[in-house]
Write a structure and sequence with these properties.
Signal recognition particle alu RNA binding heterodimer, srp9/1; four-stranded mixed sheet; alpha/beta; globular
Amino acid sequence: MIGRLRCVVLDCPDAHELAVFYQRLLGGEVACPDPALAVGDGSAVLCGESGAVLAFQSVADHRPPVWGAPEQQFHLDVRVADPAAAHAAVLALGATPLDGGETPAWRVYADPAGHPFRLVRP
């Protein structure tokens, strides 16, 4: 082993705004910025209750990924008891449903900065 993963960093237009979105989706505490985990000025960090860490970095020329496009790099999977039942709740937070992203086992959305995530059954 060469190293250990510290956190996942998402570029976005507004780091604090996106950290709050994910806090409402996943729980945890927003430390803006946490000196131990901060990725620089204009950053925010979400420390999850499970120990997972998401960091957010404000980038002026952020371009969101396109779901299903070859250049899409990643998406986040979020476990929920029932993806259909969680649909209205994530829309209320500011998520946008993505076309072609629905099955009985999962649904795909974009966060307010355009990053794709799926609500998946356990």
